[in-house]
Amino acid sequence: MNDIDAWVWWLVGAAALGIPLVVTAMPEFGMFAVGAVAASVVSALGLGAVVQVLTFVVVSVALIAVVRPIANRHSRQRPQLATGVDALKGKQAVVLERVDASGGRIKLAGEVWSARALDTGRAYEAGEEVDVVEIEGATAIVM
Fold first, then answer.
1. Where is it mostly found (predicted)?
2. DSSP classification of residue 124
C-alpha cells in the first residue's frame, strides 16, 4: 500500500466512523472521524504510518477531552425559555369564582382554569389576584 492509498483509506475510515455517529447519535464517533481526516491530511503530506496513527489518536483524544465536557455541561442546563404549563408557574391570575381547598375558577393567561388554594385554610374571593404556584393536570394551585 503506497502513501496515496493510505490517505484514501483514512478518508474511508472517517466515513465509516460517520455511520455509527448517525445511527447511535454518539458524538464520540464524530470526533474519531475528525481524527481520521487529520490522519488523512498527514498521510497526504507524505508522513509515515506512525505519524498518521499518532495524529489520529492525538486529535481524537483531544477532541473527546475538550468537546465532551462542554457538551455534557450544556446538556444539563435547563432551557432559558419556559413553555407550556411551566410558563404559567409564577404568573398572576384573577379569581372568577371563590377559590379554596376544594376548588374554584380563575382567569389565567386569558383562559378560565380550575384552581385550588395551596393553603387549605385560605379562600380567595372573586376579583382577587392570586399567584400560580403549580399546575397539576388541568388545575392551577394558587396562593
1. membrane
2. B
Q: Which residues, including other chains, have CB under 8 Å from residue 30's CB and lie 6 or more apart?
A: 17, 18, 21
Compute φ and ψ for 79, nearest 5 degrees: -65, 145
pLDDT above 70 coverage of the chain, percent: 96
User: Residue 97: beta bridge partners?
Assistant: 105
pLDDT tens sequence across 47-79: 999 999 999 999 999 999 998 888 888 878 766
Q: Which residues pair with 114 in a beta bridge?
A: 105, 139
Q: How many CA atoms, within 13 angstroms, populate the side-chain half-sphere of residue 51?
A: 12
CA-to-CA distance for 64 and 105, rounded, in angstroms? 54
Helices and strands, counts by H and E, the chain: 3, 5
Query: Which residue has cell 488523512?
Result: 40
- Interatomic CA distance for residues 17 and 1, integer angstroms: 21
Q: Are 103 and 77 in contact (CB under 8 A)?
A: no
Q: Are 96 and 107 in contact (CB under 8 A)?
A: yes
* CA-wise closest residue to 126 among 96, 101, 99, 105: 96
